[in-house]
């Protein structure tokens, strides 16, 4: 199978896509494949959905020689999914920095009109996940959930729900002393330029933009000798 350029690979659920089994994902997407550590460098873990998959490789490149940048080998999907997956995500490793997000899958609307994870459950799940991540001793960085287009094409998500879920997450992070990487605020002024039309995902330039923000915040959190 030909390997697609990272910005052109599928970033939506579907057979053989990012919701496939981790082993299949790693074969299809180099972003999800394990990487070998360079001895002596801090270890960073990225946790998130397809947005984070899109910026994984450029973040790794930007931090080359400064940190070993790993990511979970699958789409992190919702908090509900990740409560069950968090131990496999952490992989018994020692992490210096964990950069994480859940949101776009949580606020997704189901056929009955309810969210995949309702706001109250989202808060409960986030608190449990933050507690577990804090127990690693890593420095934590929460990335805010990025925008849903206002054009109404994405019937599975409502743009206004992004703020509702971000507000919940920001309160949880404030209470737990977790640093915030406000990707939502960063990208909004350039959304028409960087986000794909009628899509929550981004162009190559969009992922490179997000990667620069993510890499800068991670670098600032790396342990100093």
From TrEMBL:
Q: Which Pfam families match?
A: Lipase_GDSL_2
Query: What Gene3D superfamilies does UniProt report for this protein, alphabetically?
Result: SGNH hydrolase
Using the record's annotation, list all stretches that form the SGNH hydrolase-type esterase domain. Answer: 47-208
GO molecular-function term, one example from the UniProt record: phosphatidylcholine lysophospholipase activity
Kindly give the PANTHER family that the UniProt entry links to this protein: SGNH HYDROLASE-TYPE ESTERASE DOMAIN-CONTAINING PROTEIN (PTHR30383:SF26), THIOESTERASE 1/PROTEASE 1/LYSOPHOSPHOLIPASE L1 (PTHR30383)
Origin organism is Pseudoluteimonas lycopersici
Protein name (record): SGNH/GDSL hydrolase family protein
What keywords are assigned to this protein? Hydrolase
InterPro entries under this entry?
Ester_Hydrolysis_Enzymes (IPR051532), SGNH_hydro (IPR013830), SGNH_hydro_sf (IPR036514)
Q: Which domain of life is it from?
A: Bacteria
Q: What is the lineage of its organism?
A: Bacteria, Pseudomonadati, Pseudomonadota, Gammaproteobacteria, Lysobacterales
Entry annotated with the keyword Hydrolase: yes
């Amino acid at each position: 199978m030909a390997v697609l350029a990272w910005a052109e690979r599928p970033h939506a659920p579907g057979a053989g896509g990012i919701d496939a089994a981790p082993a299949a994902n790693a074969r299809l997407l180099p972003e999800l494949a394990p990487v070998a550590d360079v001895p002596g460098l801090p270890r960073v873990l990225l946790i998130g959905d397809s947005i984070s998959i899109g910026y994984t490789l450029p973040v790794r490149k930007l931090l080359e020689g400064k940190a070993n940048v790993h990511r979970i080998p699958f789409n992190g999907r919702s908090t509900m999914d990740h409560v069950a997956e968090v131990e496999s995500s952490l992989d018994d490793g020692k992490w210096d920095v964990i950069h994480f997000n859940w949101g776009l899958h949580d606020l997704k609307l189901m056929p009955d009109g309810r969210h995949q994870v309702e706001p109250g459950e989202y808060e409960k799940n986030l608190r449990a996940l933050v507690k577990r991540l804090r127990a690693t001793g890593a420095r934590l960085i929460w990335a805010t959930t990025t925008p849903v287009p206002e054009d109404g094409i994405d019937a599975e998500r409502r743009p206004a729900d992004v703020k509702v879920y971000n507000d919940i997450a920001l309160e949880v992070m404030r209470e737990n002393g977790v640093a915030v990487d406000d990707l939502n605020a960063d990208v909004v002024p350039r959304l028409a330029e960087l986000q794909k039309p009628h899509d929550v995902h981004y162009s190559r330039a969009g992922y490179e933009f997000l990667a620069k923000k993510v890499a800068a915040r991670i670098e600032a959190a790396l342990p100093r000798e």
